[in-house]
Amino acid sequence: MTKANVRFATADVREGNNPIHRTTDDQYMEIAGSQLTLRGLGYNLERRTYCAYNHTRECFLGLRIAPADTTFARLKGLIGRLRLRFDEGIWVVPSSGVHTLGVLFPIDLIYLDDDLSVVHLVEHFPTFRIAPLKTQAASVLELPPHTIYSSQTQVGDRLEICKAEDMESRLRVGTATRLAGSKEERQ
User: Fold this and answer.
1) Is 3 left (phi over 0), alpha (psi -120 to 50) or beta?
2) What is the dihedral sign for C-alpha 171, 121, 148, 79?
3) What's the rounded Cα separation, in Å, for the pair 153 and 7?
4) Rounded CA gap, 13 and 158, in Å?
5) For residue 13, is pLDDT > 70?
6) Could you give the C-alpha distances from 172 to 16, 87, 125, 167, 168, in angstroms and in order?
7) Run of H or E including 85
8) C-alpha distances in angstroms, 114 versus 53, 93, 136, 140?
9) Which residue ranges form the domains of the chain, and what is each CATH number?
10) Considering just the CA atoms, what is the radius of gyration of the chain in Å?
11) pLDDT value at residue 164
């Protein structure tokens, strides 16, 4: 059986706090947080989300950043959304520019190079516009308005974008490195 043959929810059944949906093929899918697992089929249809952290300013830009790494996802972007929550965003990869045609709200844009360093910023980019193309950019972060201002992100800042589970270990390594460096400076 392929993923295309799986027909989703025809009847709902509740089991504890996790909603369980019965499919027409008598398989079950479990929705838990941002992960969707089809039991009995071995599929793990995970809705990937990432965290975006500014190492230079030591602050998070978003905790639920969705990658737009397919042609369809890049074309759709934020079209059809009514707003972005304060911790949401889209990471358009690869991209050297974006548009807000069909987007109903302004956004902040952070252009990133291959090393995830900020190469250009656009605050409060209006709707129904085409953003400037930056040839040195490899990807663009689309974030809620005022994210750049509140985080004080600037050109040259280095960002980290990874899964939440990985972020904790990466931050620990960074903190341990900084602490070791400060101990050496004192001696």
Assistant:
1) alpha
2) negative
3) 44
4) 46
5) no
6) 35, 22, 34, 9, 6
7) none
8) 16, 10, 9, 11
9) 7-46 (no CATH), 50-162 (2.60.120.1140)
10) 20
11) 82
pLDDT at 170 over 90: no
pLDDT at 177: 57
CA trace torsion 58, 61, 67, 69 (10° rounding): -70
What are 21-24's contacts with CB under 8 Å, separation 24+?
none
The two three-digit tokens of residue 144, written as one number: 């809620």
In a 10 Å sphere around its CB, with 0-12 CB exposed, 13-18 middle and 19+ buried, how is residue 44 labelled?
exposed
- Taking the C-alpha atoms of residue 22 and residue 159, their distance in angstroms, rounded to an integer, is 42
Backbone CA torsion sign across 179, 182, 186, 187: positive
pLDDT tens profile 58-96 = 999 999 999 999 999 988 889 888 999 999 999 999 999
Give the span between the Cα atoms of 91 and 68, in whole angstroms: 6
Residues 60/107, Cβ–Cβ less than 8 Å = no
Mean of pLDDT values over 159-180: 76
**Nearest 5°: phi and psi at 41?**
-110, -20
Do 98 and 141 meet the contact criterion of CB atoms below 8 Å apart?
Answer: no
Least confident of 15-19, 129-133, 134-138, 175-179: 15-19
- The predicted model scores a pTM of 0.69
